[in-house]
Design brief:
The chain is mainly alpha-helical. The chain has a single domain, classed as MetI-like (MetI-like fold, Orthogonal Bundle). 86% of the residues lie in helices and 0% in strands. It starts with a helix and ends with a helix.
Amino acid sequence: MWARVGRFVAPVIGLVVFFGVWELLVRAFDVRTFVLLRPTTILDELFGQPGFYWRNTLVTAREALLGYLVALAVALLWGAVMARSRFLEHASTPVAVLIQVTPIVAYAPSAVLWLGRGLKPIVFITGLICLVPLLFAVTTGLRSADPAALDLMTIVDAPTSQVIRRVRLPYALPYLFSATRTCVGLSLIGAVLAEWYALVDQGLGRRIQEAIDFNQTRQLWASIYAVAILGGLAILVLNVVERRVLHWHASTRTVR
């Protein structure tokens, strides 16, 4: 019981201490507002205009989710091919590495020129950022399937689609959830930065850019907090879904 309570209380204590120290240091050293704001001031800005930040948060959340889903779909197809062929894996890996190491700012303007302003380049850039972690997770996960289960599917002459759906994909789920946890941050980074180039009117990235251009420190930090809160909530939801899904799969394998 105490372990369960501690699991929930410890993160709260950590956050309280972190923001408490931040608040005290800014007050103690009288840091100028254009350098760093107090957490209480930032929260006052957030709660003072809840509708404004809520609307922009929803826009960025939608962009990040769409980019992730596009990356997941591509990773599942591409990863399934790589898992079946070592040659294709070796041929694809350099391409994936190039995608991963190329900075966003290098291709973001070209993506906007190619796809036009608005949602399309944002989803494209976000999806590209999330693709590589998901791709390697899918490939590794599909290869981690139990050989005995694969032999059984071969004996009963199961089609490839059933082998993937009933054996390989369940074993790949832990890898996918781990990669998705990484992609939460990556997708938000991609969406926020892509909004700077996509000439959009809404979104937290647009609000951050606007705050920088017009020296609006309160809006800048409130938007940053909104991104952080969005990412934190996404991680919490992901953890709940992961526990339920992986527990269900573990129970299913035990019953079988």
